[in-house]
Design brief:
By secondary structure, this protein is α/β, with parallel strands linked by helices. The protein is built from ten helices and six strands. It has a six-stranded parallel β-sheet with strand order 3-2-1-4-5-6. Helix 1 crosses helix 4. It is elongated, with a radius of gyration of 18 Å. The two termini are 20 Å apart. The N terminus is likely disordered.
Length: 254
């Protein structure tokens, strides 16, 4: 690992690629995701009939931000649904990614949430974090290949809305991961694939993440540097997950 010099300094020219998560790292879409998850889960839990066989002990209390960070943040959409339901004592059929949003399956609920997210994105748009754009500008000037690695299938739409699409060599999102059979975060597979596309060995790549699961993925991939961005997960949690450096805003590293 190339050492971090100073309190907030990275020798960026020592690395061959930088791999960014999207939501919460480059754009504040995590807030849109959180609102969409809350809307979907609150509606589902409030309408759940706990007299049905197998649901007698289900926890239908309101969904909270703590649920998001503990079970959903940074994970592929359907995995987040399954983890939250398991924590609430609810078991549903997995279903298929083609399930309609009305289907009472893991995939159906995931697709219901995805519809809510797209509605908010189309209505309100999204602006990238200024500090993140400053770092992207700096890395562009250095000629460093950049990639986005996101569990979200909405990553291309978000990048387009934020005006960032042309900044990246590749976008490894949820759809790409499924097509290539890559395990999602916290497995390192998607980051390692992005590094390969960028022409970088893992040890010469940097992972930039705000989610505990994403930081774990970077650490598991033995990349050269894992930068945690604390947007709510907490610096201690990100460090414990394997972040070598934690900042509140990427402008600190530009």
């Amino acid at each position: 690992m190339v050492p971090v010099t100073g309190s907030r300094s990275v020798a960026w020219d020592a690395y061959a690629a930088v791999l960014f998560d999207l939501d919460g790292v480059l754009t504040p879409t995590a807030e849109v995701h959180m609102a969409a998850w809350a809307e979907m889960f609150d509606e589902y839990l409030a309408g759940l009939d706990t007299s049905r066989p197998g649901l007698e002990g289900a926890d239908t209390s309101p969904y909270t931000d703590a649920d998001y960070f503990a079970h959903v943040d940074g994970k592929p959409r359907y995995e987040g649904v399954a983890d939250l339901l398991a924590a609430r004592g609810i078991t549903l059929p997995h279903g298929s990614p083609d399930d309609p949003p009305s289907a009472e399956t893991v995939c159906g609920l995931g697709n219901r949430k995805n519809g809510a997210f797209r509605t908010v994105l189309e209505r309100d748009g999204v602006r990238p974090y200024p500090g993140s754009v400053a770092l992207l500008d700096h890395l562009r000037d250095l000629g460093t290949p950049l990639a986005v690695v996101s569990s979200s299938a909405n990553a291309p739409a978000v990048l387009d809305a934020a005006g960032l699409t042309d900044r990246f060599v590749t976008v490894v999102d949820g759809r790409v991961a499924r097509e290539l059979g890559l395990a999602g975060k916290p497995a390192p597979d998607t980051f390692l694939h992005a590094a390969q596309v960028c022409g970088a060995q893992p040890a010469a790549a940097v992972v930039v993440e705000d989610a505990v699961s994403g930081v774990r993925a970077g650490a598991a991939g033995d990349v050269g540097l894992v930068v945690g961005v604390d947007r709510g997960a907490g610096a201690e949690a990100l460090t414990a997950a394997g972040a070598d450096l934690v900042v509140a805003d990427l402008g600190e590293l530009a």
